[in-house]
Design brief:
Blueprint (H helix, E strand, L loop, with lengths): L2 H19 L5 H18 L9 H22 L9 H16 L9 H5 L2 H19 L3 H31 L1
């Protein structure tokens, strides 16, 4: 990475932190702007998705989605936006990485192309789990936690084992 980029990034970060400390700039917007900066560096780091550095895209998407979460939480404080939504916003960041970068990789294998979907969808599943635990403290919620969730884990584990054994035989 060129030293000019590092110097410019440090100046921008220092300016944002100074404005935030002086009370001129709200901290929620800092996350969005930093994420946008990482996204901008990602876009200029190459002409195609194959040549771009995904190392700038991942923190860019995470910072943008984290900024949206913090901004929504500060704005909708009276509605009680819950902490479990945090995980869905981070999951959306990984989905964005897939949509922006990995989906466009032309010569990549399916596993290399689809990896952001695994943490993204897992975080959405974790959000659903937390929602059921915290909000649905009813008979259905207890049935889900006591029976359906462990059965789902057993089925998922069995599918993974069956697929791994079938790949070794091929």
């Amino acid at each position: 990475m060129d030293r000019k980029w590092i110097g410019g990034l440090l100046i921008i970060l220092g300016l944002f932190f100074l404005l935030s400390n002086l009370g001129i700039f709200r901290g929620e917007w800092l996350l969005l702007i930093l994420g946008g900066g990482f996204l901008g560096v990602y876009l200029v780091s190459g002409k195609t998705a194959d040549s771009r550095n995904v190392g700038f895209l991942i923190p860019g998407c995470i910072l943008i989605m984290l900024g949206f979460f913090v901004l929504l939480e500060a704005t909708l404080k009276q509605w009680g936006i819950e902490g479990y939504f945090f995980f869905s916003f981070i999951g959306m960041a990984f989905i964005l990485v897939y949509l922006i970068h990995n989906r466009q990789l032309s010569d990549a294998s399916e596993g290399r192309r689809n990896w952001p979907l695994y943490p993204g969808l897992s975080l959405f599943g974790f959000t659903l789990f937390l929602f059921v635990v915290t909000r649905l403290d009813t008979g259905i919620g207890r049935m889900f936690l006591n029976n359906l969730f462990p059965i789902g884990l057993l089925i998922a584990g069995a599918i993974i084992l069956i697929k791994s054994y079938s790949k070794k035989q091929d």
